[in-house]
Amino acid sequence: RTLQVQEVQHIRRSGTYPADEAPYMVRDGPVALKLRCALLRGALRHLGEQQLGELRKALDGARHEARRSSLPGTEHDAAAYVRLLARSRASTPAEAREVRMSLSEGADDPLWPVLYWCVRCGDLGAAARVLQAAARQDGAAAGAAALLQLIKQLASMQGGGGGGCGGGVPLAYAVRAAQEEYWQQTQGVEDQHQQLLYTVLAAPEPKAKMGDLLPGSSASASIEDWLWYHLSIVLAPMECGVDAVVGSAASPCHPD
């Protein structure tokens, strides 16, 4: 370990990289941008898988209390985890006004906390399914159409769909639409989960402090939460850059 520290210090002083680290140097150009994006995605995927493992571990011993359904999917784990958390603390007046939705028969869960845990666990496909289910239930997801489109597009990229113009719209337009949607409703946003989701997915306030947005006490945030938050904010505009590069090499696309 001492040798590794000395090597890193040498690299910082001299600006030279050993052969096996040369590809990770920050260089200008589309290739370097794609590499940095891939590294960020990999780090966020690891943080998400780690969080999902912790979440499922918490549910293993309390499936009955959490009313975990037999349906597969991260969204059902997230909903059960939100129920489990609710049992361990007193409700607040703000929670009484939460937008609610149902993923399974007999369930009634707060939309934004469930959506937050899907995203925090790195499963954007599950997050898209949550918002789609909410949209079918008396407009529970009213006002979040742009966020849903952005999540679906990012989920497609996460699943190996690559960049390009998912749904006919470049990613930068989808991000901008989500930013505008956030600012249109910012005065009426009470749920910290909702604010945090827009921040990490669309970066409408890239200088926002995690402690002001993280649900619950910021003192309980782990180093993994801190990394997830800041890497996510960095990734949003970087993904747009990669998407623009890929899109320029393909047939041009135009927003509706």
Topology:
Blueprint lengths: L1 H13 L15 H31 L2 H4 L7 H14 L5 H4 L3 E2 L7 E2 H10 L3 H12 L9 H17 L9 H15 L6 H11 L7 H4 L9 H27 L7
Antiparallel strand pairs: 1-2
Helix pairs in contact: 2-4, 2-12, 4-6, 6-7, 6-10, 7-8, 8-9, 9-10, 10-12
Describe the structure.
A two-stranded antiparallel ribbon has the order 1-2. The protein is 63% helix and 2% strand. The longest helix is centred in the N-terminal third of the chain and has 31 residues, at 30-60. Helix 4 (74-87) packs across helix 6 (111-120). It is built from twelve helices and two strands; from the N terminus they run αααααββααααααα. A hairpin with a 7-residue loop joins strand 1 (100-101) and strand 2. Residues 1-26, 160-166 and 250-256 have low confidence and may be disordered. It has helices at residues 2-14, 30-60, 63-66, 74-87, 93-96, 111-120, 124-135, 145-161, 171-185, 192-202, 210-213, 223-249, and strands at residues 100-101, 109-110. With 256 residues, the protein is mainly alpha-helical.
Report a brief summary of the structure.
Helices cover 63% and strands 2% of the residues. The chain has 256 residues and is mainly alpha-helical. Strands 1-2 form a two-stranded antiparallel ribbon.
